[in-house]
Amino acid sequence: RPATTAAGAKTKKAKVAKGPSVAKQCKEISSAMKGAEGYPPLVVKMISENLAVCLGDYKEDRHEFQATLASMAEKMLASIKVSVEAKIKESEETLAKADTEK
């Protein structure tokens, strides 16, 4: 029925978030995941290529599998963060050591 369809469309439009699209944000996150160490390449690919599918829905509307994939992505990103922070610390120590040797 046309009246029902128009009302449903208005409800869906109200739920659309403003700002950068989820797909664009997921693409950026996906490219960052390519550097994940300690994970099989197929696992990285599986998680990174399906981010938009699971994060495109509101958290409370996600299926259990979507929530699980989001949790795996969160763990992977946390490990990447730790790895990057360790590399930064190592680089800073190397730089400080080089400065003291001058």
Separation, N- and C-terminal Cα atoms: 80 Å
Integer average pLDDT: 83
Weakly predicted, low-confidence segments: none
**Which structural class best describes the helix and strand composition?**
mainly alpha
Q: Please give the radius of gyration in angstroms.
A: 20 Å
> Total number of helical segments?
5
Order of helices and strands: HHHHH
Description:
Helix content is 76%, strand content 0%. The chain has helices at 2-15, 22-33, 41-49, 51-55, 64-101. With 102 residues, it is mainly α.
Question: Which helices and strands occur, and which strands form pairs?
Answer:
Elements: H1 2-15, H2 22-33, H3 41-49, H4 51-55, H5 64-101
Helix pairs in contact: 2-3
Primary descriptors:
102 residues; 5 helices; elongated
Characterize this entry briefly.
With 102 residues, the protein is an all-alpha fold. The protein has 5 helices and no strands.
